[in-house]
Design goal:
By secondary structure, this protein is an alpha/beta fold. It contains twelve helices and 18 strands.
Length: about 350
């Protein structure tokens, strides 16, 4: 079985012990660290394992901190993750039989290594009973999915629907297509910036002085995913002229449909900004997830993904791989075809923006 494992400084020593035992038992172990005993923040490592389990990269996950409680709380933020903090063999058995737990959270300070080794064995070998428990687990997971979908905002405006209908039309010429992409980017940008904080300022009009509102808080960075994302930049700059622009270059492998990064250039203070990641099409979600992950590694806390047309498969992947990102789209389309193009979609947005059909 493919098992993802990580710890913090409170569980580092036991992690090293468990990695050796799991590998010896024939499991394929993904060790996400840390590789030393220096103090670290447990949510950072819970995120790594939870993401691997949530995406299907690993079948099960194991996390170790001082008590196991913090790791469980952090890992459970991910859609599809069922994390259980366990200290007894009975609980290890029941969390699998009744709850179909897929991430085991252990105490590195209050439970002996030999006991934790046994808890791992039980966790990995015990099957889910299903039956009456399946309905309950399904209800539990439905709550998580509903919470994740709350982070998807689809535009509900007659002008958005009108402009999008023209954008989809294969007869729409390049010049008009490009203009419509910019206009729709402006609409989706309005929605993505709706919650920006305001502060009071005194303004003197030709008639009197009064207290008005202006945007406060973090500054903005617009980060297009090359190349199609470039088509949305001017529309967003019309909305937020002071924003800085970074770039992340990716191409899609036509066989695997997975992204390959080839370029990245971000503002030096990107970690102090709200980042608007832009790409007209959210198809498989691979490029968007990779771009969001890149920004997270750069220290960005507030990431928002802006697109024109999204597929359910891409939305699910992005929301499951990052527990905080929000998606803003002009439309949520039906599905992907066998070539990972959105249906009904609008074709290849990059080719239509730049006239390279």
């Amino acid at each position: 079985m493919k098992v993802a494992i990580a710890a913090d400084h409170g569980g580092y020593e036991q992690k090293a012990h468990l990695v050796e035992r799991l590998a010896g038992a024939g499991h394929e172990v993904m060790d996400f660290g840390p590789m030393g005993a220096d103090a670290v923040d447990y949510p950072d490592y819970a995120l790594k394992v939870a993401r691997a389990v949530s995406s299907g990269e690993a079948a099960r996950g194991i996390l170790i901190c001082g008590t196991g409680l913090g790791m469980a709380m952090a890992a459970d933020k991910f859609p599809g993750v069922r994390a259980a903090a366990v200290q007894t063999p009975e609980f290890a058995t029941l969390c699998r039989q009744h709850n179909d737990a897929n991430v085991l959270c252990l105490s590195g300070r209050f439970v002996e290594p030999t006991v934790n080794e046994e808890l791992c064995r039980i966790f990995l070998e015990t099957p889910f009973e299903g039956g009456r428990h399946a309905k309950r687990v399904a209800k539990m997971m439905a709550c998580g999915q509903a919470m994740a979908m709350d982070r998807l905002m689809v535009m509900d405006h007659p002008l958005v629907a009108h402009k999008l209908s023209i954008l989809r039309d294969e007869a729409t010429p390049t010049k008009l297509f490009r203009e419509l992409v910019q206009e729709l980017a402006l609409f989706v940008g309005y929605e993505a910036t709706r919650d920006f904080p305001l502060e009071d300022v005194e303004v003197t009009t030709p008639l009197e002085t009064f207290t008005a509102k202006r945007v406060a808080g973090k500054k903005v960075a617009i980060v297009p995913i090359l190349r199609a994302g470039l088509g949305m930049v001017d529309g967003l700059l019309a909305l937020v002229p002071s924003a800085k622009v970074g770039h992340i270059g990716m191409y899609r492998d036509h066989e695997t449909h997975e992204p390959r990064e080839y370029y990245a250039k971000l503002p030096a203070d990107v970690d102090q900004r709200t980042c608007l990641v832009v790409d007209p099409m959210l198809a498989t979600g691979g490029s968007a997830s990779m771009a969001i992950g890149y920004l997270r590694k750069a220290g960005v806390d507030d990431v928002r993904l802006l697109c024109l047309v999204a597929a359910p498969e891409g939305v699910e992947r992005v929301l499951s791989e990052d527990p905080d990102v929000r998606i803003y789209a002009c439309a949520l389309d039906r599905e992907l075809n066998d070539d990972a193009y959105i249906l009904p979609g609008l074709g290849d947005a990059g080719d239509r923006i730049f006239g390279t059909l």
